[in-house]
Amino acid sequence: MKYTKRLSTLFSELEKCEKFADVGCDHGYCAEFMLERDLCAHAVVSDVSAESLKKAQVLLANYAAAGKVTSVCCDGLEKIPRDCDLVLIAGMGGEEIVTILKNGFLPRKLLLQPMKNTRKVREYLLSQGMEMIADYTFADGKFYDLIKAEQTGRASAYSEKELEFGRDNLLRPSADFLEKLRTEIEKKKKYLLSPVDGQAREEITLSLERLEEINRETRKYI
Ligand SMILES: C[S@@+](CC[C@H](N)C(=O)[O-])C[C@H]1O[C@@H](n2cnc3c(N)ncnc32)[C@H](O)[C@@H]1O
Fold first, then answer.
1. How far, in Å, from the CA of 17 to the mean position of ligand 1?
2. CATH number for position 78
3. Quick one: pLDDT at residue 1?
4. For labeling, which of 40, 59, 141, 144 is most exposed (least CB within 10 Å)?
5. Do 56 and 113 lie in a common domain?
6. Are 2 and 26 in contact (CB under 8 A)?
7. 93 and 150, same structural domain?
8. Which atom number of ligand 1 is nearest to the Cα of residue 88?
9. How many CA atoms does the CB half-sphere of 2 hold within 13 Å?
C-alpha cells in the first residue's frame, strides 16, 4: 500500500504505546500502521461518521477478530477510553480539535495535525500545561502543521511569533516551511496589486511585513 506523504509524516511521529486511539480515523491506516509494527497492544478507532468508520472496520477486521481493535462511532473523545496513552487527531480544523479536547480529556500524549487555526491548538495545549515536543510545517501538495504534545510538566511559554508560526519552524526551519513563507509572501504581494483598499489593504500589508520579517529571521539558520 502506498501512503501519501502526509500520512507517512504522521506515521514517522507515531511511537510505541500501550493503547492507541485514532479520533476521526476514516480509512484506519494509522491504526493499521501501529498494529502491523507492534507499536501498540490495542487500538481504538473512532469516527463521528458511521460510513467513515466502516472503512476502518473493514481494513482492521482481522485485528478486531483477534481482540486488538475496538471501533466506536462517536463525537470526539466521547467514547474513547481514558487509558489511551497516545491519541491521534488528524485532518480536522484547529477549532474542532480544541473543542474535542475541551469536551473530552487530555491524554498523556497527543499527535495532532490541524488543517487550519493551528495557533488556537497551540494556545489551548499551553493553557493545559502540555509541552509541544514537535511543532512544524510540512508539505504534501499543500502545507500542513503537525504538533506532538505530552504532559511532561516541562511546558515553557511560547512567544507571540512561536504561537503564530510554530516553535520548530522558527528554530529549525525546514525547506517546506521556507517554501510556505515564500508562497504566502507571493500570494499577499499579488493580492495587494489588485484594487483592494481600506482596512483590508492595511491588514494584508501588516501580515506581509510580518511574513517578510520571519522570512529574514529564519534564513539566518540555513
Ligand atoms: C479529513 S478526514 C481525516 C482522516 C484521518 N484522520 C487522516 O488524517 O487521514 C476527517 C475525519 O474526521 C471525522 N470527524 C470530523 N469531526 C469529528 C468529530 N468531532 N469526532 C470524530 N470524528 C470526526 C470525519 O468524519 C472524517 O472521517
1. 22
2. 3.40.50.150
3. 57
4. 141
5. yes
6. no
7. yes
8. 6
9. 0
What is the grid cell recorded at 135?
A: 511543532
Cα dihedral 98→99→104→110 (10° resolution): -20
Q: Which of 131, 39, 21 is nearest to 76 (CA)?
A: 21
CB 112 within 8 A of CB 121: yes
Domain span holding position 193: 175-219
Torsion (CA) 209, 124, 153, 11 in degrees, nearest 10 = -80
Judge whether 26 and 47 are in contact, CB under 8 Å: yes
48 in ligand 1 pocket by Cβ < 6 Å? yes
CA distance 155 to 212: 29
> What pLDDT digit, counting tens, does each position of 159-178 carry?
999 999 999 999 999 999 99
Q: Are residues 79 and 187 in the same domain?
A: no
Mean pLDDT of 186-201: 92
